[in-house]
Amino acid sequence: IPLSTRVMENAILIHCNIGKYCYIGCGGIYDFVHTGNYCSFAPNVLIGGMEHSFWAVSTSTHLSDQCVFGRVTTIGNDVWVGANSVIRQGVRIGDGAVIGAGSVVTKDVQENTIVCGAPAKFLKKRFDDETWRQIKASNYWALDKKRANETISHLRKSV
Question: CA-to-CA distance for 141 and 101, rounded, in angstroms?
Answer without folding.
Answer: 23
